[in-house]
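New to this. Help decode both lines:
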Amino acid sequence: MKRCIALAINGLGSTAPNPMVGCVIVHKDRIVGEGFTSPYGGAHAEVNAINSVADKTILKQSTLYVTLEPCSHFGKTPPCSDLILSHGIPKIVIGCVDPNSKVSGRGIERLKANGCEVIVGVEETACKTHHKRFLTFQTKKRPYIILKWAKTKDGFVAPKTKKTKQPVWISGLKARQLVHQWRSEEQAILVGGNTVLEDNPSLTTRHVEGKNPTRIVIDLHNNLPRDRAVFNSEARTIVLNSENLNGEKPLAQEICDVLFDQNIISVIVEGGPKTLQGFIDENLWDEARVFQSNTNFGVGVKGPQMGCNVSKKIRVGQDHLELTFNSK
C-alpha cells in the first residue's frame, strides 16, 4: 500500500477533480503491475495497473492493492470494479473507503457479491492523508483550503506605504519557486480585489514547469480593471462578484459554496490579510503555509492572526516556512 501511495503522488496537480489514486498488482509476492490515475478524463489507476500486466492470465491468481475504493459507477470512464471482476482478480486490498455518494461502499459490495475477498483499511491513515483534498471535498462539501502568505520577522505582510507599483518581496527566490510549485499542484488559487489592484499578480507557475491553476478573483462590485494580469489568457479566471456572492452567508462560506459548485477540490488562498483572516475567522481552512523572512519593516500591514501553534518549521533558502494544520 505504501508503494500505491508513492505511485499516486505522480498524479498530483493533474487528476482533479478526480482523486489521485495508486494501484499495485501482486502475483506470488512479486509486483507484476502498477498504475496511477491519468490526467482528468483519462484512465483510472486500476485500469493503468491492469493494462501494465504483460500476462493477463495471472490476474486470476493475483492481489490488487489500491489506495481508494474502486468506483462502481459510469463517469468519464467505465466502473473499475467491473474491470476487476472481468479479469477475475480474486483479492482486493483497499486503503480507504470512497465517501462519494456515487461510490461509497458500493464498489466494495459489488466485489464481495461476486466472490472477491476484500480487505479494507490497510494503511488507512496514510491513505486518508494522501487523499485529503478529495476526502475534504466529498465530506465537507468545500475545497481543501491552503492559506499562504509571507511575513517579516516583526510580523508585517506589507510596508505601510509602497514607493512603486511593483510587489514588495518579503521572501527570497527559493521560497517563491516553491510557491509556484504549490500552485502547479492545486486546482485553483484565490486572491482579493485589493491584491489585484496593489500587486497586479499573474498567479501562474512561471518559475517552474507545471500547469497554471484556475485563478479565483474576489471582485464584489465588478469594478477591477480588465487590463490586470489575472484577466489575461494564460489561465482560466473565475470572478466572484454580486452575481454569485449574495451576502446570505459569511463571505468565506459563500466562496466555498461557489467553488464546490464549480467542482474545485483544492485552492490556495494567497490574498491579503483581510481575505486570509476571513477564512481563518470562519474556520474554513486546512493548512497554513507561512514564510517568515529575516527582514523587519518596523511599521506596516500586520499579517493574519491564527490563534494556534505552528506544527512544523522548515528552512527554505534564506527564509523559514511555518506549517500549521487545522485540527478543529
